[in-house]
Amino acid sequence: METIETYKVNLRDMQQDTYSCEYVLNDEFFKSINAPDIRKGSMHVHLDVRKSAGGFILCFHTWGQVTVPCDRCLDDLELYVDTTNTLKVKFGAEFSDEEEVVTIPEEGYIDIAWFLYEFIVLSLPMQRMHEQGKCNADMMHVLNRHSYHENDNISSSQETEEIDPRWSELKKILDNN
Question: Which of 20, 36, 67, 77 is 20 to 30 A removed from 124 (C-alpha atoms)?
């Protein structure tokens, strides 16, 4: 079982100008980090740490598969992730990640667990849905039953009324988008 210590990188005691390591993120990682957007996953991370003037540059290459809820039917949806991210780190009085540079205390440890999670989440598409026709059929039936359809609310008296031509022109604009 992984602990939070697994994801602490000691920058203070780095002997060489570069350092590399590998991590495997599994279901335990996403459960322990309280990942609200990711249910489970199997990810590989390659981390390169390089000393630079005034700090360190951490380069992450992350790839693998995560399971997220489908936005449409809420069933599990597996997505492939392949992302490369960079994090700049410097030493300071206290921890801060407000700018483009993360500041860590002089003791020299940085916990990369939350950064790994954020990099993965930010690489996911905004809309996470199964391909058309692959969603849970029961859920789609319920969703369609409760969805608003424009034609459902038009009464026969409204159909015969003439619509102001200005509204018709505006509706054409909406239909083109």
Answer: 20
Long-range contacts of residues 45-50, Cβ cutoff 8 Å, at least 24 apart:
45/116, 46/20, 46/21, 46/22, 47/9, 47/20, 47/21, 47/22, 47/23, 47/112, 48/18, 48/19, 48/20, 49/9, 49/11, 49/14, 49/18, 49/19, 49/20, 50/17, 50/18
Torsion, Cα 148 149 155 161, to 10 degrees, reads 120
Total Cβ atoms within 10 A of residue 62:
20
Amino acid letter for position 96: S
pLDDT tens for each residue of the chain, 177 residues long: 455 678 999 888 888 889 999 999 999 999 988 878 898 999 999 999 999 888 999 999 999 999 999 998 999 999 999 999 999 999 888 888 877 889 888 888 899 999 999 999 999 999 999 988 888 888 888 888 887 766 555 554 455 566 777 887 887 787 775
pTM for this predicted structure = 0.77
Are 79 and 65 in contact, with CB atoms under 8 Å apart? yes
